Amino acid sequence: MESFKIVIDGKECEAFPGETVLEVAERNGIVIPVFCYHKELRPEGACRVCLVEVEGAPRLVTACTLKAMPDMVVKTNTERVRRARAGVIELILNNHTLECPICDKSGECELQMTGFRHGPKKSRYAEPRREKDIVIRGPLIEIDNDRCILCRRCIRMCGENMGNRVLGILNRGYKAYISPFNGDFIESGCEHCGSCIDVCPVGSLLDRAFKYKDRPWRMIKTWTTCSFCGSGCRVEVDTYHGKIKRAVGRIGVNEGHNRGYLCVRGKWGWDVVYSDKRLKEPLLKENGEFKKVSLEEALKVLKERVIGRRVNLFLESSLTNEELRRLRSIFGKEAYSDSLGYYNLLKGIASIIGRAESSPLTSIYDADVIFVVGDFIEELIPVVATLLRLAVIQRGKRLIRLGTFPSKLDSVSFSTLTVPQEEVINTLKHLILGTFDTSYSSGSREIDSVAKVLRGKRIVFVLGGLTPYSVEAEEIGKTVAYLADRAGNCSVVAVPPKANSLGVIKNFKIKEPDEFDGEVNVIVNAEFERDFFGLELPKAEFTVLFTPYYTPEVPLADLVIPIETALEKRGSFTGIEGELPLDTALEPSYTLLGSLSSLPVIEEEGGTRAEFEVKKEPGVPRIERKKGELLLTVLPNRTGWGSVSYYSENVARVSGERALYLNPADYRRELVCLKTKNGEITVKAVKDERVPQGHALLRVERFTRDISELLKGSFPSLSGIKCEIAEE
After folding, report:
1. Domain limit, last residue, from 21, 52, 77
2. Which of 100, 340, 496, 562 has the highest CB neighbour number within 10 Å of its CB?
3. Of 715, 655, 266, 676, residue with least CA distance to 531
4. Residues 348, 425: one domain?
5. Could you tell me whether strands 334-337 and 509-510 are parallel, antiparallel, or unpaired per DSSP bridges?
6. Domains in the chain: how many in total?
7. Per-residue confidence (pLDDT) for residue 94, from 0 to 100
């Protein structure tokens, strides 16, 4: 892109077509104050505090909306500009409550800092302030409209970037105030991502879990990686005196691939560290009763009863690479893991390219077309859904989605192919033929239109959401990779469902769930109902459990050793963006690596490299549905994914409820008995036209015993399971 020169405050600056004066100034270290502007939002020019003087222009103009032009001369600090800027700030401060001593935003408030630097030295306003004593309190978010400056950042972030449109301005003039449209956050559909709080320049939008807890300048700010899903988001964890006070994304400042965006789990799930279910001391079972023992005694028993025996090793996928390598060196290279579904997906990709790997998520910015395969990406990996949305609205990418259920991404997609689950692979095969044979017709105008769009384009295929948990995960991976391989100049992004799924796969040979052959069980940070749904803990001579919490497996174990949570860890995860570092300012009493360090090593630390047979053939459909059968999808709610739904009081405040969603044609009554091959539950049924006929969507707030029984024999699948609604 050809650049040109402009002059700002006497300094010659390089500019590019489409850039604003404010963007050029920021890149060259020239400070122009802003309120309504934010680098992640479209310019609006509403607050007027970024006014600058342009040579030849009759009046001052807003730098955030002014496009840079060749040879433009801009002045940002003339007397005229300073007077206008101070006037704008004075008008804002006239009716802005001065609660800085008690306001949580004090110390990082943009109005406070800008007022000191660019505002008037004293106010000429003698009348009483007009108070908008309208405070709206949600479970996690509070709006204090007395402090609001109506910059509309929160409204634009929620509506444009997040696609939720929860917030708006009610009333007019000085009576105007910000509110959820229904007056209630949950009823208005708020997803509690916290992005509105992050971009608010003043103390109007507040994190209720942080309110009155501490001051920004006193806290230690530690950057780490969120462990609550597979997005691998960078997050700032603020602590004081060794206690977490809040988690912050820092939208527009964060240099991680998530760009500061978080979800409800990453923003508020930090309180799992302080759960009342935390395990405080090692426990040893004697004569059917637990007794507290020292760590040294527990490790001595572990060496005597476990080391040297055949082990059933169960791993949850939020352990660090350092912990995984150490576990491998002690217990061997074979393990059972909740990464099995994701491994199956990568195995399908490997059958085409020869390697079980994924392209980085940031490759979406280099593609002409983003082709998304999967349902409920916005529920399971919300930040990835946000980044896909922003690639469309900020960078003009074309997005195409293939799935069975509707998605928020459909509102920005160029085309959406909504097909029954049993038709997903056949639809991909139609696209393979239509992309390379211009005379081919699938019989569907929508599919043929998409095939035409894909021809000759750089495509990035994104597999995520429930795709790793599909009955056809391996076949979908195989078919998508085949299409990408045939198209050339394409890439496949397989987003992992858990924080270190890739790390587990690189370090261990993942075993199938029916291959239990050990004499002893070793369970590391895993819960069977949550991570190995539908499986039973195999009988063994001795069972060891490493866990931060009192889990349902504690009564079944013979030895329980406490470990730290992910927010207390140092080390790294392996994400699709590479190595993701973890750090902490906390000092936990027990650590997994600390416990493992005294155990004898049976082999050197190292990874395992699986060999895959390359066949270069598309996948084969695995779902066959008879007339009258329903296909069940079990979906953990946004708040029910991972440990946060079990141990976070913050997240529990906005958790959903269990319900079975059915198409009106399949709906019979309000309370139904849902049956699968191996289990059944009684659940409330809800009519929902968005659920395709012949499908059943079971939303759960967490995996409980009855859900695990319902899914018996289906692990690792959560989607495409045959079920029926039992007759009365």
Report:
1. 77
2. 496
3. 715
4. yes
5. parallel
6. 4
7. 86
Count other Cβ atoms within 10 Å, centred on residue 681. 18
> 498 by DSSP, 3-state: which?
coil
| In contact, 695 and 665? CB cutoff 8 Å | no
Same domain, 552 and 658: no
Cα separations in angstroms, 228 against 271, 448, 567, 672: 12, 39, 10, 32
Instruction: Write the single-letter amino acid at 271.
Output: D
For 405-457, how does the pLDDT look when each residue is reduced to its tens digit (9 = 90+)? Answer: 999 999 999 999 999 999 999 999 999 999 988 899 999 999 999 999 999 99
Structure token pair of residue 268: 């508020």
DSSP state of 614: -
Q: Which two tokens stand for residue 591?
A: 């650590």
Name the burial class of residue 368, with classes exposed (0-12), middle (13-18) and buried (19+) by CB atoms within 10 angstroms of its CB: middle
> Residue 621 and residue 421: Cα distance in Å, rounded?
10
3-state DSSP assignment of residue 178:
strand
Task: Identify whether the C-beta of residue 717 lies closer than 8 Å to the C-beta of residue 532.
Answer: no
Same domain, 358 and 472: yes
Degrees, nearest 5: CA angle 216-219-223: 100
Alpha-carbon span 177 to 183, nearest angstrom:
12
Residue 43: which CATH number?
A: 3.10.20.740
Last residue of a domain, one of 77, 112, 128: 77
**Nearest residue to 230 via CA among 494, 467, 499:** 499
Calpha distance 457→487 (Å, rounded): 8
Euclidean distance between the first and the last CA atom of the chain, given in angstroms as a whole number: 69
User: Are both 433 and 393 inside the same structural domain?
Assistant: yes
Tokens of 516: 């239990």
712 and 700 fall within a common domain: yes
- Look at residue 524 and give its three-state secondary structure: strand
Q: Which two tokens stand for residue 81?
A: 């500009």
Q: What is the pLDDT of residue 608?
A: 61
Distance separating alpha carbons of residues 249 and 262, to the nearest angstrom: 6
Bridge-based pairing state of the strands 11-15 and 542-547: unpaired
3-state secondary structure 223-261: EEECCCCCCCCEEEEEEECCEEEEEECCCCCCCCCCCCC
- Give the HSE-up count for residue 431: Cα atoms under 13 Å, Cβ half-sphere: 31
Q: Where are the beta strands (DSSP E) in 251-324?
A: 283-286, 289-292, 311-315
Helices (H), 411-465: 424-436, 445-454
In a domain, 178, yes or no: no
For residue 243, being part of any structural domain is answered with no
How many Å is the Cα radius of gyration of the chain?
28
β-bridge partners, 696: 632, 662
Torsions phi, psi for 607 (to 5 deg): -90, 180
Using 70 as the pLDDT threshold, list the residues of the chain that sit under it. Answer: 1, 604-610, 727-728
DSSP state of 270: G
**Residues with Cβ < 8 Å from 456, sequence gap 6 or more?**
none
Residue with tokens 């630390």: 605
Does 233 fall in a domain? no
Number of H-type helices and E-type strands within the chain: 20, 34
Report helix angle 445-454 to 424-436, nearest 10: 50
Supply the pTM of this predicted model: 0.94
The first and second tokens of residue 656, run together, are 């959903």
**Structural domain for 422, as ranges:** 340-494
| HEC secondary structure over 325-356 | HHHHHHHCCEEEECCHHHHHHHHHHHHHHCCC
The reported pLDDT for the residue numbered 626 is 82
Burial class of residue 137 in the structure, from the number of CB atoms within 10 Å of its CB (0-12 exposed, 13-18 middle, 19+ buried): middle
- Neighbouring residues of 704: CB distance < 8 A, sequence distance ≥ 6: 529
The pLDDT value recorded for residue 1 is 66
Which three-class secondary structure state does DSSP give residue 323? helix
By the 10 Å C-beta count (0-12 exposed, 13-18 middle, 19+ buried), 438 is classed as exposed
